[in-house]
Amino acid sequence: MRNYEVMYILRPELEDSAVTEMVEKFQNQVTEQGGTVADVDNWGKREFAYELEGKREGTYVVMHFESTSAVAEELRRVMKLNEDVLRCLVLNRD
Fold first, then answer.
1. How much helix, strand and coil, in percent to the nearest 5, is found in the chain?
2. What average pLDDT does this structure show over 61-87?
3. Cβ-proximal residues to 71 (8 Å cutoff; 6+ apart), any chain
4. In 1-94, which ranges are continuous DSSP H helix?
5. What phi, psi does 26 have (nearest 5°)?
6. Burial classification of residue 52, based on how many CB atoms lie within 10 Å of its CB (0-12 exposed, 13-18 middle, 19 or more buried)
7. Which of 29, 34, 16, 31 is nearest to 82 (CA)?
8. Per-residue pLDDT, 53
9. pTM of the model
10. How far is CA 63 from the centre of its chain?
């Protein structure tokens, strides 16, 4: 098992309940596949330095978790396919 950090940016139009739902969805994906989530930090809406997909701001979320590389890669794939996620970056913290 390795330590990972994922930062993702959600669309600014999402309601707080929808943001919470997305955060829980990604947490559950890690835990259902045998990983453990250590910490989730919702930074809230932040303005971008430049436009992303026509947006000037987005909701930033950082999650630290421990899992196998296959789980981390699957999480990245699912985030890339989700149209509510503007950007995501998965880092190996080891």
1. 30, 50, 20
2. 95
3. 30, 33, 34, 35
4. 16-32, 69-81
5. -70, -35
6. middle
7. 29
8. 84
9. 0.90
10. 7
